[in-house]
Amino acid sequence: VQLVESGGGSVQTGGSPRISCAASGYTENFTCMGWFRQAPGKAREPVASSCPRHVGAYYIDSVRGRFFISRDNTRNMVSLQMNDLKPEDTAMYYCAADPNWGSRWQWPSMYPYSGQGTQVTVS
To answer: How many CB atoms within 10 Å of residue 115?
Structure first.
């Protein structure tokens, strides 16, 4: 299984970029797909997760109402629309996927598959 992120880059405060992730090597739809991030010197942080067959989308408090996760199950893709970006959103953003449902659904960093990440820098 391979996950490849795209989008991101340098944006100004208040910007609204969209990052996407395409999965390959898995013929079924992943039960859960999500995003986590890691800023320099900080721990990994879950951002959003989507497990539509089981539960509504999850967002951490700091991005709720600004970020929106969406999935295209026909292509096993997940995207994250980020609005009103702040400097504290600067981080490497990783997509992740889990074929199974379980207690880790809110923690994309614990999913078995993840990508190489895409940098988002807000200034």
So the answer is: 19
**H helix or E strand, kind and range, residue 93:** strand 91-98
CA distance 94 to 19: 10
Residue 7: which of 86, 77, 88, 59 has the closest Cα? 77
Cβ atoms of 111 and 17 within 8 Å: the answer is no
Give the whole-angstrom CA distance, residue 114 versus residue 3: 6
User: Are 119 and 45 a contacting pair, CB within 8 Å?
Assistant: no
Nearest by Cα to 24 from 109, 92, 115:
115
Nearest alpha carbon to residue 109 among 120, 99, 97:
97
Residue 65: partners with Cβ closer than 8 Å, 6 or more residues away:
59
Tens digit of pLDDT for each residue in 56-114?
999 999 999 999 999 998 889 999 999 999 999 999 999 999 999 999 999 999 999 99
CA geometry: angle 27, 32, 34, nearest 5 deg: 115
